[in-house]
Amino acid sequence: MKVVREDKYEKLMDLAKRRGFFWPSFEIYGGVSGFYDLGPLGSMLKENIRRLWLEYFVVKHSDMAVAIETPMVTPEVVFKASGHLESFTDPIVQCGKCGRVFRADQLIESATGRKVEGLTPEELTRIIKEEGIKCPVCGGELGEVRLFNLLFQTYIGPYKRDVGYLRPEAAQGMFTSFKRVFTVMRQSLPLGIAQIGRVARNEISPRQGMIRLREFTIMEMEFFYDPEEPGEPPYRRFGGKLRILTAEQRVRGDEKPITVSPKEAVEEGIVKNPWLAYWMLVSKEFVKELGVAENETFFEEKLPEERAHYATQTFDQLVKVSRWGWVEVSGHAYRGDYDLSRHMKFSGKDLTVYKRFDEEKVEVREVVKYDKALIGKLFKSESRKVIEIITKLSPDQVKKLKSSGKEVLEVEGFSIPSSAVWVEEVKEKVTGRKFIPHVVEPSFGAERLVFVALDKSFVEDGERTYLKLPPRIAPIKVAVFPLLSKPELISKAREVFNALLSSGIPSTYDESGSIGRRYARADEVGIPYAVTVDYQTLQDSTVTLRFRDTKEQVRIEVSEVPTKVRELIEAWRLEE
Amino acid sequence: MKVVREDKYEKLMDLAKRRGFFWPSFEIYGGVSGFYDLGPLGSMLKENIRRLWLEYFVVKHSDMAVAIETPMVTPEVVFKASGHLESFTDPIVQCGKCGRVFRADQLIESATGRKVEGLTPEELTRIIKEEGIKCPVCGGELGEVRLFNLLFQTYIGPYKRDVGYLRPEAAQGMFTSFKRVFTVMRQSLPLGIAQIGRVARNEISPRQGMIRLREFTIMEMEFFYDPEEPGEPPYRRFGGKLRILTAEQRVRGDEKPITVSPKEAVEEGIVKNPWLAYWMLVSKEFVKELGVAENETFFEEKLPEERAHYATQTFDQLVKVSRWGWVEVSGHAYRGDYDLSRHMKFSGKDLTVYKRFDEEKVEVREVVKYDKALIGKLFKSESRKVIEIITKLSPDQVKKLKSSGKEVLEVEGFSIPSSAVWVEEVKEKVTGRKFIPHVVEPSFGAERLVFVALDKSFVEDGERTYLKLPPRIAPIKVAVFPLLSKPELISKAREVFNALLSSGIPSTYDESGSIGRRYARADEVGIPYAVTVDYQTLQDSTVTLRFRDTKEQVRIEVSEVPTKVRELIEAWRLEE
């Protein structure tokens, strides 16, 4: 089985390079690992995936979501606040002999099979010593394990004090600009702020092709909501259930995901809040458009040691692909108020939101009161200081001080008579509530989806190899052929081709080689429809329209080609 | 006049921030100059401009152009080869007292009014000394002028030897991957390779808002063609003429652009080659879609000292905007074979292309011949070495050596009889030709176009301020309003809104405030169409459709709203 799968991967990689989906970047200089170019077909496939994502996450949610764009180069303070400077690290170890650097955890896992995720550098160093693990290249002695930060570092402007980093996620742009967007959007919650943009992660030695890149395009949404009144997500917009493998299942070795509706998942406490569950539902629907059926994907809850530093619950949406097995196509993190709280602290700005109650409420509140006259009499010139001390006490502190029944309260060196300080209940009108919104985040890597879409659509059917790419994401929608390379057919075929281009339908024209070979060439890159101009066309203005997946052919009017193709693309649905 | 213009800019900036087009990034941390966020409206405006660019430069040119995507992080060797490490610099000078750094040329120009573009650091230092220019902030003494490289530097992976830079243009990705794309595209020329992607330039102290950013999105095409047989561009696809201000005109102080057809411009030697002229034509048409009429833009030829190091002719397309005056919206550089030649040299890879002749040609070629027997007899054990020396000589070298009439040729210490070496003409069949393609490059900055489109569309019309954005690029196409905030009207209006969202038409819904105020809010952000649900709607299923620019209203069927809006968007043309 394994050989067959690797074989498919090799064939796909060959196709990707030969026909122009993707290839390693900087090839003429020997390449740099972790960087891939998207070629003519790959870039259009990605463009279509990108537009579909915008449609699902923003346009279809225009009542609650918007997109923004923020820079990739980011000043240091942002990643101090976000915790990335401290926590976005991998453990590395260097060989004392050849100087090569390795991921310490991967080295240990491949040498011993031990899972070491979450261990400290000290613990990893001890394991390397105990197990006698040596440099896998030269056999040299390995040094101490240390943490390597995966942020690409640079300087902004001409001063060395102005350190900047390339962002490893788009999210921080949404957090630092949250208040501005919230204001622009007339201060209503829930509010999703989405972004499609470039990110970079300085991986030590990426070796998984398009699956693990040092630079890629993230498609990410930070969805802000009121944790006390999250509201009911519009589940009805997207049908279906979620397949979830919980952390608890994983711990006891259960590998079979359960199937629940998003609403049930929340009610049963499997997913910590309704919006996390809702965006998982949307993600499942979105990925279906890329050719991944519902039963081919599930959500795996991460264990605490597998989660990023900002998350209190995380699910990875997994899809099985050739060579790499189950890979994450989207991540769903419950970030709570972590990021906004941190940015409040580091910027000193108020990032809370204020929610006006529908009706004014009367709230009973405890306040600390004191006998000003008595204190003045007792403490004279120091009475102002004593009052200052008293006003800083909370009602609870006062009650605690008095609870012992003492006659005198000892506070910061002053002995205050118990009768001079007391707690009183006051009634207050409250018009609203200030709070830090909570956040759930669905996040996708676009290039990985390009690979997944190709892998899922790769079909070997006897002599024929083709990509059954969903028409909506297929880079080229129509191939136009003259049946034979004759001037009268070529001229008519070029007319059809130009009509398609004017209609804005990405198309290709091909007149070289046998018609069978041209069909095969079109099938190989997933062009869903082929239009052939033959001698009958010259008589009755009809052409053959051929379907990639079934090889079926029908005759249609030349004039209706663009409209018919558009209809077919719109009508297409994944068979399950 | 000047006051009014600045006023417009301030108003536009206020609108941009208040309604969510753009604002300075990282505001909560005090901002970092040269970085802007695109807000909910700005990011969609940019998305539409981006799609339109792809349509004009790639989809409408599917017979000769493709798009690719390459990384922003780039290994050092690429910019060594491209010349950016050496030449992508600005002259800077530091104050010895306060330590601040300034652009030396800008400092001199603002202190003395002298134009100093193209001068060396030594010359700039001398002017600073001669003119007694001091630090404009603290009055301190300025140091020596030196060159500051504008590439953001970083390291790729864990080794400090692996220097990388953020690309300042997308172009190098097209050059380093040219051979791969050329192969994928079945080796045909001309071939345009386009890319939309992020670039970064570490400007010293950017102060021109959205006009000069440290990070932005470039939309760029490298168009490769055979310089000996460039072919005829399809001028007919885009009508009209070009307005050009030549370098020669500029030198003699003429400020009035000439108007020529692209073909004439080439024939008259104003534009150095037909493809440069053709893409200028396409650019003019593209910019028209953003609301810039033909008579509001022209192409200014750059003077030699204004050109980038790789260009032999450059035109900037200029548009006049508030505050900043004439700004460049696109650059058109004739890069010749500079980049491919440099990458051939630095990579050692053959980046030439081979063009098979339609018919085999017979070419007469000179070759160096020698008398092997004679040389063997004369030089014995050294004869192999002598032959090696002879075969390295070019026919011209041999002719020169023999032209003096000497009996003996002195070459590398050997005395060879003249009769032993001669030049002969041979006839050869040649099937094709190897050459390095030439390149023309049209290049746009997307964020700058966002600003230009807003500036061009900003209208103050009595009490009303609105954006007459072309409907195709307007971020939101339709606003839906219930006439009054009554349940039955709200419910119907929400139905219309949902139908628009399902049709994928970006729309907004608003029920708060008077209908007049809601129209004003929609006009202010350039929503071209507004649909209002009133009591008549409940009776006859019609709504009012209001046009932003004319305030005209018509009644249409509820059911035809999405179709009608689509038709209006498609049919819209810029009035000139």
Descriptive terms for the model:
homodimer; alpha+beta; Herpes Virus-1; nine-stranded mixed sheet; 35% helix; 29% strand; elongated
Describe this structure in words.
The structure is a homodimer of 576-residue chains. Mean pLDDT of chain A is 94; it is low at 1-6. In chain A, the strands form eight sheets. In chain A, strands 3-10-11-21-16-15-14-12-13 form a nine-stranded mixed sheet, sandwiched between helices. A five-stranded mixed sheet of chain A has the order 25-24-26-27-28, with helices on both faces. The first copy, chain A, is 35% helix and 29% strand. Chain A contains 20 helices and 28 strands. In chain A, helix 2 runs antiparallel to helix 11 (274-289), helix 3 packs across helix 12 (338-347) and helix 13 (372-379) crosses helix 14 (383-392). With 576 residues, the first copy, chain A, is an alpha+beta fold. In chain A, 42% of the residues are buried. Chain A has four domains: 9-88 and 150-339 and 440-445, Bira Bifunctional Protein, Domain 2 (BirA Bifunctional Protein, domain 2, 2-Layer Sandwich); 90-149, 2-Layer Sandwich (Herpes Virus-1); 358-432, no CATH class; 476-571, Anticodon-binding domain (Rossmann fold). The interface between A and B is large, with 84 and 83 residues.
Helix content of chain A: 25-40%
Distance between the termini of chain A: 24 Å
Provide the low-confidence segments of chain A as ranges.
1-6
Strand line-up across the major sheet of chain A: 3-10-11-21-16-15-14-12-13
